[in-house]
Amino acid sequence: MKTTCGNCNAEWVLPAGKSITACPFCGKPLVTSNALGKFKDIADVIRYIIELRGPSVIKEQAFSGLLTDLAQPFERERKWIKYGLAEADIGKAFYQAHMSSNPDDRVSAREVALRRLVMDGATAEKANFIVQCFVHGLGWDSDAGANIANSDKADSQIVESVIAASESSSGQVPASSDKTPISEVQDGITVPPESRESIRFKQLLFKAQQGDADSMDQLGAAYCNGSGVEADNEEAFKWFQKAANQGSPLGQFHLGLAYHLELGTPANYSEALRWYSKSADNGIAEAENNIGEMFFQGLGAAVDQAEAVRYYRSAAQKGVVAAQYNLGIALANGIETPRCAAEAKMWLTKAADLDYSPAIYSLGLMHYQGKGAEQDYGKAFELFRRGDLLNYGPCQNSLGLMYFHGAGEEQDYSESMKWLLKASENGFAESQETIGLMYYHGLGVDLDLKKALDWFVKAALNGRIEIMETIGKMYLNGEGTDPDLEEAFKWLLLSAKAGYQESQVLVCEMYFEGHGVPKNDSKAFEWLKKAAEHGDSAIQGLLGSFYQNGEGTPRDYEKAVYWYQKSADQGNPEGQYCLANMHLKGCGTPGDYEKAFSLYSMAASEGCVPAMKELGNMYCLGLGVPCSFNDAIKWYNAALKGGDSSVEADLERCYDLLKRKGRNIKDAAIKKEMKKRNFTPAQIRKYMKEKKSGI
Taking a C-beta distance cutoff of 8 angstroms, is the pair 263, 224 a contact? Predict the structure, then answer.
């Protein structure tokens, strides 16, 4: 037996001997189209339209009054009438009764209409006229109503169904030849191609084109969500703009949202804030929450967290659940307001009681960490389970981590994996990373680097930037895959662009060596400079050497000294050694033997072998300290012990000089050593003059 639902227009065929009382598609009590002629009264008709089409098609006040006025007389008379059975003039009178500003006229016309609505024999044209009035007319001006009444075209499948029902002797809506099923479901049930959403879209388009601002806004939402029409953000923006300009509060809110989120238009935060403000002034509390977020992030206005909290509080007090959550988080973190754990917990609880998943998760974390609430693993577990019932990935991930660490529950890697997999199915990247780590280290599963790499890649593609560096290193070292320098470079570059220091250094090395990418010293320098800005002393020293040697950048001794100084100030022995060299030679800074000696001494005390050798040279030559062959021999021996065999010749010369006597012999030896170490003749003369004058 073929049946059609009067609510959603779904069609299906029931197997023999089987019956149902509710539509298998919309779930509502079964109202098939062959019941269209058996509505109890016009109030039932309107209830049916509202249920099928949504309450927004009829102005709320008009509908409320109409329903009350129409229902009572028919309840008394217990009359049964067919949908749309009325003469055209009575239908027109009925419509005008609700448009008249004169209460007496309205009562009189209504009484006439009610007496005649029980008459039979209406034509399709008359039925069409009345439906048009009910669907479109209430709350509109008379000219608009006249335009609707005179329209020759039925603008929805609802009207077509009513016309067909009034002309059919059986009341059954005849099947249209172009209604071929689009999908097969259980028991042979099929759905006609035109959905309820498309019907609603056509109705919204009709009313929007007639100038109804609320319909314009809803039409924009339909385009934005792809409801009844192909999604089109630019078209959505156009209708939101029209609705907002006609004063629709929701249209103003949605236009602000479009500017905020780049929906069909480039981002314009000042415009977003302007329209949010108009919407908030017109009573849309959600707009206040969004204004708070913009002040919090500094979008469209300077960052003002106190103002953000003020807007959050106003929206929260009006019941906006997202604002209750935002206010709770702000209070918990002490953002521009005294830290207040009790009030923070109160607002988060309000949001959680409305099943707002982020609030449930945040309360769980408060109990898990003991911050803002008493540490209670049991309460945390209970809250995370609530979040799981809402299929919220962060809560599922937290349950996995509780089993992973044995926090409040016995450590159980298998149970942990179950929850982590559930969270990962919801696209939660942190869970995917943790699963990868379990395979990488063999925790609860067999060690499997290939599976680890696969999970890391899933996490990275879902936005887990932190794991990109690990992926790059695995491709670089051939872990879980064959070594692939190009793939390694791709992942390390992504990580470097995200600001990860080690990745920036590795990208520098790959550019410098031409590994996985063409050699490019200037790009190597650029990435090394980015890495140095993080403050690592060793990287700062390396950047100084790039400036000193002119690698990837013009040679610049002063900048070399600047970066060596930064490195040395943090106690880095290599930075101290390089800075000492610059002071010794007067490169990028005035020559200063005493500073050089001091820096070499600090570096040597930290085990820097080259600094030990230079201390030996300074004692041997008397640079910055009195000449002492014994001290020179001590430092040369320290360098030799540290692995520098080049000092063996220096040791022999020191021992030989100890045997000689006379100033001239020593001076000649000093000059020879200074020439060997690339001191210029001017530097040598200056040094010898200073020695003779006793400076």
Answer: yes
